[in-house]
Design brief:
single chain; about 220 residues; mainly alpha; elongated; disordered N terminus; transmembrane
Length: about 220
């Protein structure tokens, strides 16, 4: 073993660069192992012992104590209920139910009456129905307001595009009119031809008169 240590020492003395590179690689490996062990080490917190979270990884979904629901589905249901509450069918059914309730508790035998005068249970049911109907109607109105706002925004953008298109067409028509003002039109050409024909007729008439005068002079 002493001979082996001497051989290793002599080898390191013969190759000092290789020994330093090996030592540097060993230190880097040990440093990396210590860092991984420190990241995986449990950390004591207020909620107990937990593993340290990696910053380079996304967080998982958190647990919620309250139940989750779809706001759009709940809003659609509330709109249906609010739409039914505002119809004549609901008023007819509610009137029929109240009349039946009051008639049963007035005309039925005392042993079968479940809500005698002053009909406290009926009042409680109507109050409960009103307490639920008001928020449902408000929720439906809020959704309608949101839709109206979106529709108004779309209409405003559409109007802006229409105005821009109209201005563009107006400029193009004005440019065409200016361009056509410098082009010979049919009426202008016709008037020019009439003028040329008139001048030719006048020239012919003048030449004819000159020739007649020449003949008269020759005859004399």
């Amino acid at each position: 073993m002493a001979a082996d240590r001497d051989d290793r020492r002599h080898g390191e003395e013969r190759a000092p660069g290789r020994g330093r590179a090996t030592a540097h690689g060993r230190e880097r490996r040990e440093t990396r192992e210590r860092r991984e062990a420190r990241e995986a080490r449990p950390v004591a917190g207020a909620t107990g012992t937990r593993t340290r979270e990696r910053l380079d990884l996304p967080l998982g979904p958190r647990r919620r104590l309250l139940p989750e629901w779809d706001p759009d589905a709940f809003g659609r249901v509330s709109e249906r209920i609010a739409r039914f509450l505002g119809t004549g069918r609901f008023l007819v059914w509610m009137t029929f139910a109240i009349v039946l309730w009051v008639g049963w508790n007035v005309a039925a035998p005392p042993a079968l009456r479940f809500d005698e005068y002053p009909f406290i249970f009926l009042t409680l049911m109507l109050s409960l129905q009103a307490s639920y109907a008001a928020p449902l109607i408000l929720l439906a109105q809020n959704r309608q307001d949101d839709r109206d706002r979106v529709n108004l925004e779309q209409d405003r953008k559409q109007n802006e595009r229409s105005i821009a298109d109209t201005e563009y067409l107006t400029r193009e028509i004005a440019a065409l009119r200016m361009g056509l003002g410098e082009v010979a039109t049919r009426d202008w050409i016709r008037s020019e031809l009439h003028d040329v024909l008139r001048e030719l007729d006048e020239q012919r008439a003048g030449q004819g008169q000159a020739s007649e005068r020449g003949r008269d002079a020759d005859d004399r």
